Amino acid sequence: MSEGNGNSAYGRKAFKRSRSHFTDRITADGRDGRPVEAGRYRLIASRACPWASRALVSRRLLGLEDALSLGVVDPVQDDRSWRFTLDPDGRDPVLGIRYLSEAYDARESEYPGGVSVPAIVDVPSGKLVTNDYQQLTLDLATEWKALHRKGAPDLYPAGLRDEIDEVMADIYEDVNNGVYRAGFATGQKEYEAACAGVFHRLELLGQRLADRRYLVGDSITEADIRLFTTLVRFDAVYHGHFKCNRWKLAEHPVLWAYARDLYQTPGFGDTVDFDHIKRHYHQVHTGINPTGIVPLGPDLAGWLTPHHREQLGGRPFGDGTPPGPVREDEEIPVQGRP
Q1: CA 162 vs CA 42, 62, 178, 207: distances in Å
Q2: Coil, helix or strand for 83?
Q3: Would you name the residues annotated as active-site residues?
Q4: For 91, what's the count of Cα atoms within 13 Å in the CB-facing half-sphere?
Q5: Which among 23, 24, 75, 86 is positioned nearest to 53, based on CA atoms?
Q6: Segment 183-225, tens digit of pLDDT
Q7: Residue 80 DSSP one-character state
Q8: Taking a C-beta distance cutoff of 8 angstroms, is the pair 175, 244 a contact?
Q9: Which of 246, 241, 169, 233 is nearest to 200 (CA)?
């Protein structure tokens, strides 16, 4: 999510998502000059951001916590972008910087596209490596395999990649990005087209998931991660704040059960911070919420209710196993959880 300067402009100018400017890849063989190496890189993420949340889920499912350290930014930015005010003295304890923009500036000055998360920073140099949110998690699943935990699931299995890519492309266009096109629309027709696209795709996904537990195959893949990070924010922010209000997620039996199933799966709900999500969207997007008031609802208790999706079969982690307990230093405060 790329924000910082100009947050007040959202809802007042046509929305167009910027392409990632820094697309260096970290690979097993280091063919792009960035070899996978335990401890060399640091993932910077916001628990409020759906694009960054993909990386948080992937990192946890794959057991990369010791290999790829994590810095979490404040959900509310100031005019210099994402900031490390959650850390002592307002500095990232590993990189020693106050703002993520400092790692961007160390890499390149006057870069286009703003400061976005997720971002991976090279610790020795302090320079940004990549902010390519589309490729980053695919590389975690494939290029970082030597550092995966024992029993890590295959989130991007070779035999299913064409189908996964096709499903993810539709989800991105109509759902992941569609909610933003609706929320930041500047005209009625623009809004209605985007909103209609969101719900049309959700209905199709509901039909797909009516008789299968996961989107592709019989276990969790990258496609499920990308849909989940939008669904988990739907009732909390997209339904009201982005005006995607034809119905609530909790009113769709199939998608609500599917989302709860994933939320209750280790690696998903334990990365979600509803407090960060709600404060970011309502306090940062002043162009569409000028008062900055954060709603009290919705009631989060439903996320932990039985979903009964196990009746459809499937194996959440394939031939693998669930991730272990959340590291103590990465636990989410109680107010951010149901």
Answers
A1: 30, 21, 22, 20
A2: strand
A3: 49, 180
A4: 6
A5: 75
A6: 999 999 999 999 999 999 999 999 999 999 999 999 999 999 9
A7: T
A8: no
A9: 246
